[in-house]
Automatic annotation (TrEMBL):
<feature type="domain" description="Dihydroneopterin aldolase/epimerase">
    <location>
        <begin position="5"/>
        <end position="118"/>
    </location>
</feature>
<comment type="pathway">
    <text>Cofactor biosynthesis; tetrahydrofolate biosynthesis; 2-amino-4-hydroxy-6-hydroxymethyl-7,8-dihydropteridine diphosphate from 7,8-dihydroneopterin triphosphate: step 3/4.</text>
</comment>
<dbReference type="InterPro" id="IPR043133">
    <property type="entry name" value="GTP-CH-I_C/QueF"/>
</dbReference>
<keyword id="KW-0289">Folate biosynthesis</keyword>
<comment type="function">
    <text>Catalyzes the conversion of 7,8-dihydroneopterin to 6-hydroxymethyl-7,8-dihydropterin.</text>
</comment>
<dbReference type="GO" id="GO:0046654">
    <property type="term" value="P:tetrahydrofolate biosynthetic process"/>
</dbReference>
<comment type="similarity">
    <text>Belongs to the DHNA family.</text>
</comment>
<dbReference type="InterPro" id="IPR006157">
    <property type="entry name" value="FolB_dom"/>
</dbReference>
<dbReference type="GO" id="GO:0046656">
    <property type="term" value="P:folic acid biosynthetic process"/>
</dbReference>
<keyword id="KW-0456">Lyase</keyword>
<dbReference type="GO" id="GO:0004150">
    <property type="term" value="F:dihydroneopterin aldolase activity"/>
</dbReference>
<protein>
    <recommendedName>
        <fullName>7,8-dihydroneopterin aldolase</fullName>
        <ecNumber>4.1.2.25</ecNumber>
    </recommendedName>
</protein>
<dbReference type="Pfam" id="PF02152">
    <property type="entry name" value="FolB"/>
</dbReference>
<dbReference type="GO" id="GO:0005737">
    <property type="term" value="C:cytoplasm"/>
</dbReference>
<dbReference type="InterPro" id="IPR006156">
    <property type="entry name" value="Dihydroneopterin_aldolase"/>
</dbReference>
Length: 122
């Protein structure tokens, strides 16, 4: 059985991108996380130590996403996935969506970004 912990709409200002102004000024990114784990123990115990703290996941995600400037969203999201899987042994897999609402594209669009899924045991 796999249960899911999720965080949606995490807004982070970072300096990822290929263009000079993206790395100099930065922009807002929005991250959605789905963390796949077994929640049967905390659903019975009602103890935080038996689950994964949302606050800790957000802090880990923010640090992994902001601390290094990447050219590609794929790499930035990969850094987040690596950090989550390294720091939270209860999480079996993670799905990360990174939205780049102000991407430098000469078009009108609602959303652009990437989505990746990583697991402990591919």
């Amino acid at each position: 059985m796999t249960d899911t912990i999720f965080v949606t709409g995490l807004s982070i200002h970072a300096r990822h991108g290929v263009l000079d102004h993206e790395t100099e000024v930065g922009q807002r990114f929005v991250i959605d996380l789905e963390l796949y784990t077994d929640l049967s123990e905390p659903s019975r115990s009602d103890r935080l130590v038996d689950t994964v703290s949302y606050a800790d996941v957000v802090a880990t995600t923010t640090a992994a996403f902001k601390n290094t400037n990447y050219k590609l969203l794929e790499r930035a999201a990969g850094a987040v996935a690596d950090a989550i899987l390294s720091n939270f042994p209860r999480i079996r897999a993670v799905k990360i969506t990174v939205h780049k609402p102000h991407a430098p594209i000469a078009a009108i669009f609602d959303d652009v970004g990437i989505m990746l899924t990583r697991s402990r045991h591919p």
